[in-house]
Amino acid sequence: MRSISGQECPEPDGLFPHPTDCHLFIQCSNNNAYVKQCPATTFFNEAIKACDHMTNAPDTCQ
Protein backbone atom coordinates (compact mmCIF):
# COMPACT_ATOMS: atom_id res chain seq x y z
CA MET A 1 0.00 0.00 0.00
CA ARG A 2 1.24 3.45 -0.87
CA SER A 3 0.03 6.62 0.77
CA ILE A 4 0.32 10.14 -0.64
CA SER A 5 -2.27 11.80 1.56
CA GLY A 6 -1.68 9.98 4.84
CA GLN A 7 -4.47 7.52 3.97
CA GLU A 8 -4.01 3.98 2.71
CA CYS A 9 -5.84 2.26 -0.11
CA PRO A 10 -7.76 -0.88 0.87
CA GLU A 11 -7.62 -1.89 -2.82
CA PRO A 12 -5.40 -0.62 -5.67
CA ASP A 13 -8.21 1.29 -7.42
CA GLY A 14 -11.59 2.64 -6.36
CA LEU A 15 -13.49 5.08 -4.17
CA PHE A 16 -13.63 4.49 -0.43
CA PRO A 17 -15.10 6.31 2.58
CA HIS A 18 -12.76 8.47 4.66
CA PRO A 19 -12.32 6.89 8.11
CA THR A 20 -13.24 10.00 10.13
CA ASP A 21 -15.15 12.48 7.92
CA CYS A 22 -18.27 11.51 5.96
CA HIS A 23 -17.87 14.55 3.70
CA LEU A 24 -14.54 13.23 2.41
CA PHE A 25 -13.63 10.14 0.44
CA ILE A 26 -10.46 8.43 -0.71
CA GLN A 27 -9.82 7.95 -4.40
CA CYS A 28 -7.27 5.22 -5.03
CA SER A 29 -5.44 4.91 -8.32
CA ASN A 30 -2.63 2.39 -8.72
CA ASN A 31 -2.41 2.19 -4.91
CA ASN A 32 -1.97 5.97 -4.63
CA ALA A 33 -4.47 7.49 -2.17
CA TYR A 34 -5.98 10.94 -2.78
CA VAL A 35 -8.38 12.54 -0.29
CA LYS A 36 -11.26 14.27 -2.07
CA GLN A 37 -14.08 16.40 -0.68
CA CYS A 38 -17.73 16.20 -1.62
CA PRO A 39 -19.47 19.47 -2.59
CA ALA A 40 -21.29 21.46 0.09
CA THR A 41 -24.46 19.85 1.48
CA THR A 42 -23.39 16.38 0.33
CA PHE A 43 -21.65 13.36 1.87
CA PHE A 44 -19.86 10.32 0.45
CA ASN A 45 -22.37 7.50 0.11
CA GLU A 46 -20.43 4.24 0.13
CA ALA A 47 -23.40 2.29 -1.25
CA ILE A 48 -23.39 4.23 -4.53
CA LYS A 49 -19.69 5.24 -4.46
CA ALA A 50 -20.58 8.90 -5.03
CA CYS A 51 -21.41 12.11 -3.20
CA ASP A 52 -25.08 12.20 -2.25
CA HIS A 53 -27.55 14.68 -0.75
CA MET A 54 -27.49 15.05 3.04
CA THR A 55 -31.15 14.00 3.18
CA ASN A 56 -29.87 10.46 2.52
CA ALA A 57 -27.06 10.63 5.10
CA PRO A 58 -27.03 8.39 8.17
CA ASP A 59 -27.59 10.04 11.56
CA THR A 60 -23.88 9.68 12.33
CA CYS A 61 -23.00 12.08 9.50
CA GLN A 62 -23.67 15.73 10.25
From TrEMBL:
GO cellular component: extracellular region
KW Chaperone (keyword) present: no
Molecular function terms from GO: chitin binding
Alphabetized PROSITE patterns for the sequence: CHIT_BIND_II
Gene3D superfamilies: Chitin binding domain
Occurrences of domain Chitin-binding type-2 (ranges): 6-62
This protein's UniProt keywords: Chitin-binding, Disulfide bond, Glycoprotein, Repeat, Signal
Matching InterPro entries: Chitin-bd_dom, Chitin-bd_dom_sf, Chitin_bind-dev_reg
Full protein name: Chitin-binding type-2 domain-containing protein
Species of origin: Brugia timori
